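User: Can you recover a sequence for this backbone? Please restate the input before giving your answer.

Assistant: Of course. Working from this structure:
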């Protein structure tokens, strides 16, 4: 590989003038520190994956799972210190290196092999995602390819700007099966995003089995926007998603939206309605016209049961209780309700998250607000941050990937405006809201609402190419993420991989595709 000719605003080119898709200069997210060299390593049928520590074996297996199908090589995982005749990929946990951030890693490639060092398995995993991009795009194939499996030479030192990097998926408006969610998780992992927020309940469907309230799924799950058949995750399936995510160092955050957006629960149980009658099935896209009945004791028994069952099947530290668009309630009613619900989450040992309206209830300091506003002028949110609340940043103008790219986009919505590809990248998670300090920001999170998103292919179209941009804002240093004209070349260099992965991405004319 060449190491010259890299100017600002120009991705690295190969000798034939085309973008060198696997150059160290073209990584997304861009690492903290990169020094490329000419000393490439070539993977062969003799390469071994070497781990020094049992704790690294899971990551080694994941890596082998990525490399074996396309290379057709055996790539045995060997514990201890041994090198194959043609070198090895070595994954090393170095707990003594206090200079490595818990999610960070160091990667070194020379003619003898590849070494990834980290203080935690999560860091090794991030390093593996980097290694993946240093190989030719054909590495993404799921069948054997004939290629020269060259890894670009050099050294990388890398760690995230924000420890929290999230992606939300609405499985309520349209239901997505376990396989689709697993694929979504894989896209997150590919771009070093480490939290999956599942919007599990809404007016149009209840998507998670709750033993103590079986009608939620017996009656409340068989619908979706447009009248489709819906669906839900059994507890076993939910655990399968959680475990799959764990192998990719992704934490699942379940959201049970309340007290609004509860039409599916109100349709399942008459007693949750103030008038004692079951609500009609909802297959439309109205928002804000449903609420649990706040005057009934059974409502609080219901949320306590649901919160405790969801907490019990969720190993991650967070539980999201929605709290958006409860338009039928007064501020006092809403705040009183939240001041009952939030302690229930804390009681279950989870940290509560809510859409940023929840901060208006003046909840305990550990409550996290997820900002979904459209303006930098949000004094209530700034005041809550000042009072100690942390924020997850999902501004609808930039991070709502259900917004259309432009007026010609068929999928998606436009209530927050259009979000062309540069806009999803041209913002700063820590600088969006006036008067909020970076120390209050946990990190960015993309949202993907599914009013008219029905299939994996639809998901891919809205995600790519915007999602890798937001993922980079979450991972990479601020000083390296403020130039769309530089980023667009690295983004373009990802597309040969997406082609091999068969991702249905939007071929925006604003990206200089190779
Ligand atoms: C607003 S954002 C909503 C959702 C919709 C979304 C569509 C938020 C907290 N609530 O109910 O699906 O807009 O973009």
């Amino acid at each position: 590989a060449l190491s010259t000719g890299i100017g600002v605003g120009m991705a690295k080119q190969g000798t034939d003038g085309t973008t060198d898709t696997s150059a160290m200069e073209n990584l997304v997210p861009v690492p903290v520190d990169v020094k490329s060299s000419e000393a490439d390593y070539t993977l062969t049928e003799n390469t071994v994956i070497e781990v020094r520590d049992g704790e690294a074996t899971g990551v080694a297996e994941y890596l082998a799972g990525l490399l074996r199908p396309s290379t057709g090589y055996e790539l045995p995982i060997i514990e201890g210190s041994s090198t194959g005749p043609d070198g090895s990929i070595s994954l090393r946990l170095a707990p003594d290196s206090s200079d490595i951030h818990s999610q960070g890693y160091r990667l070194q490639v020379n003619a003898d092999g590849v070494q990834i060092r980290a203080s935690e398995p999560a860091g090794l995993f991030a390093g593996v995602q980097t290694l993946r991009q240093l190989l030719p795009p054909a590495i993404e194939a799921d069948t054997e390819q004939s290629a020269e499996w060259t890894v670009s030479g050099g050294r990388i030192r890398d760690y995230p700007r924000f420890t929290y990097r999230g992606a939300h998926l609405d499985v309520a408006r349209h239901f997505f099966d376990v396989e689709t969610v697993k694929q979504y998780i894989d896209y997150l992992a590919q771009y070093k995003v480490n939290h999956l927020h599942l919007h599990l309940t809404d007016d149009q469907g209840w998507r998670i089995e709750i033993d103590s309230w079986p009608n939620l799924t017996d009656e409340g799950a068989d619908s979706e926007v447009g009248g489709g058949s819906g669906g839900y995750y059994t507890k076993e399936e939910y655990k399968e998603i959680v475990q799959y995510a764990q192998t990719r160092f992704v934490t699942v955050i379940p959201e049970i939206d309340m007290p609004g957006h509860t039409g599916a629960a109100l349709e399942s149980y008459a007693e949750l309605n103030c008038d004692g009658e079951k609500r009609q099935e909802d297959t439309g896209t109205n928002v804000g016209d449903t609420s649990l009945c706040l005057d009934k004791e059974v409502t609080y028994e219901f949320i306590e049961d649901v919160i405790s069952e969801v907490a019990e099947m969720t190993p991650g530290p967070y539980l999201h209780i929605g709290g958006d668009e409860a338009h039928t309630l007064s501020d006092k009613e809403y705040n009183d309700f939240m001041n009952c619900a939030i302690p229930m989450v804390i009681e279950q040992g989870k940290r509560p998250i809510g859409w940023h309206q929840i901060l208006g209830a003046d909840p305990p300091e550990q409550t996290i607000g997820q900002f979904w506003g459209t303006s930098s002028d949000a004094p209530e949110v700034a005041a809550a941050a000042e009072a100690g609340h942390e924020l997850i940043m999902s501004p609808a103008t930039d991070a709502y990937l259900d917004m259309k790219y432009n007026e010609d986009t068929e999928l998606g919505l436009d209530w927050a405006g259009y979000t062309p590809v540069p806009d999803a990248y041209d913002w700063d998670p820590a600088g969006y809201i006036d008067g909020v300090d970076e120390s209050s920001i946990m990190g960015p999170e993309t949202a993907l609402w599914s009013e008219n998103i029905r299939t994996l292919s639809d998901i891919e179209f809205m995600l790519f190419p915007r999602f890798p941009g937001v993922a980079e804002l979450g991972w990479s240093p601020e000083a390296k993420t403020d130039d769309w004209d530089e980023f667009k070349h690295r983004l373009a260099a990802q597309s040969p991989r997406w082609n091999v992965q068969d991702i249905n991405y939007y071929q925006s004319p604003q990206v200089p595709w190779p």
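That completes the design. Residues 1-10 have pLDDT under 50 and may be disordered.
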